[in-house]
Amino acid sequence: MDTISRPDPYSALRFPEFRAFVGARFFLTFGYQIQAVVIGWYIYHLTRDPLSLGMIGLAEAIPAISIALYGGYVADKSDKTILLRWILAAMFTCSFVLLLVTLPSIKNQVYHGHIVWIIYSMIFCIGIARGFLSPAMFSLMAQIVPRDHYPNSSTWNSTGYQIAAIAGPAVGGLLYGYTGITVTFTVVMAFITLSFISLLFIKRRPPQYIPKEDIFDSLKAGIRFVFNSRMLLGALSLDLFSVFFGGAVALIPVIASEVLHVGAQQFGIMRAAPAVGAVLTMLLMARYSPMNKPWRNLLIAVTGFGLSIISYGLSRNYYLTLFFLFFEGAFDSVSVIIRSTIVQLLTPDEMRGRVSAVNSMFIGSSNEIGAFESGLTARLMGTVTAVIFGGCMTLSVVGVTYLKTKRLVPLGLNDIHPPGKE
Fold first, then answer.
1. Picking from 89-93, 140-144, 367-371, 416-420, which range would have the lowest pLDDT averaged per residue?
2. CA pair distance 227, 242, nearest whole angstrom
3. Is residue 412 pLDDT above 60, yes or no?
4. What pTM, to 2 d.p., does this model score?
């Protein structure tokens, strides 16, 4: 009797170098999330200004966006493992400076405004590192996993990220609340070190393709490639604007402190709630792929994301807020899997760094720009109104995207083709 073979939900994890890659990204994300939670809580309690939270995102997004295209060019012509080691070394240095400037002995002797600007400066430097990080990570993953396993590798790569995003905020809130900021930044540096060690288990690989044209022509080729693919451009644009207007997660410190009146520990749990929803959904998607009708499912997921944000803004109950944050992360994770799989499938190996750079400009910094938009609208409209406004704008973006991309809605995974073959 014939048996129907089922897809292996763990296929990508059977490659040792991919496991090391997921570990490196997990440890880095874990430390980064702890650091983000602590910085947000620390700066808000120094300034008591919601716009200061938006400025955190802006300080990181400006250099990340500015350097992203050059970062993609460098990634395409470099050994990715070596490049990543240098990036992690730079991020470790920034965290060390943050530890020094937030020491209680320094805080008591230096004007708070100066401390805030030093922190913003380090965030700016981290943004520069991120401009190189995303293209290098994206390109390296494609070199260590065969093409047939890209959808599964995208799922597990995102799952590892989301697991770190669950534990990071919760641990950050608890560490800060119970042990103080010095111990917390020490833990951050320890996890960056673990990420560096994980990269040592991935073999060095010379670049498969070195751009022969000059840097400006090379960068224009990457941009042209993205804009020639309707599905790729549509997916990036939808994520860009939905995350831009849906960046209300950045206001969780204000919601926790001023609306729900909870402390650092509960704040950490609130920051973890979206990631809990995301990782549980991603584990489910490892077996049940959302790629049967990717564009339709993407529009549904972003609609659910916008509705969750509106509900989160209206909630006045701590546990109900956690519930809505959970579903915000769950819906967001579906769009992450679909978008990352589309990008992997449509991008040729020789352009992965540059296309990832464009992706990073669209998506990688949209969270930070969205945080600035949320902080600014919170100051102008009030926190709750700003959250609801962001959710409504996200739904508007979905509506406009649907009207402009109706012909993509019925397409299946096998209908996704590179530009020129659509």
1. 416-420
2. 19
3. yes
4. 0.66
Look at the chain and report how many structural domains it folds into: 1
State phi, psi for 346 to the nearest 5 degrees.
-90, -10
Q: Is residue 3, in this structure, part of any structural domain at all?
A: no
Q: For 15, phi and psi rounded to 5 degrees?
A: -95, 115
Closest alpha carbon to 278 in 258, 296, 294, 301: 301
Instruction: Please name the residues in contact with 38: beta carbons below 8 A apart, sequence gap of 6 or more.
Output: 172, 175, 176, 181, 184, 185, 188
pLDDT of 421 higher than 60: no
Residue-range definition of the domain harbouring residue 383: 12-199+211-415
Write down the residue that tokens 């464009």 correspond to: 358
Strand, coil or helix: 419: coil
Give the pLDDT confidence score for residue 208 in this predicted structure.
62
Which amino acid belongs to residue 291?
M
Closest-CA residue to 339 (of 369, 376, 373, 305)? 305
Helices (H), 48-179: 50-76, 80-101, 104-107, 112-144, 150-178
Q: SS3 for 211?
A: coil
> Can you give 301-355 as a three-state secondary structure string?
HHHHHHHHHHHHHHCCCHHHHHHHHHHHHHHHHHHHHHHHHHHHHHCCHHHHHHH
Residue 188 CA to residue 31 CA, distance in Å, equals 4
Q: Is position 6 within any domain?
A: no
Q: How many whole angstroms separate alpha carbon 105 and alpha carbon 180? A: 13
Structure tokens at 286: 């490892």
In a domain, 80, yes or no: yes
204 in a domain, yes or no?
Answer: no
Interatomic CA distance for residues 323 and 308, integer angstroms: 9
Whole-angstrom Cα distance, residue 126 to residue 70?
16
Pick from 334, 372, 160: which is nearest to 235 by CA? Answer: 334
| Among 12-16, 110-114, 164-168, the least confident range | 110-114
- The CATH number of whichever domain residue 391 belongs to comes to 1.20.1250.20
Amino acid at residue number 63: P
Burial class (CB in 10 A: 0-12, 13-18, 19+), 380: exposed
pLDDT average, residue stretch 354-382? 70
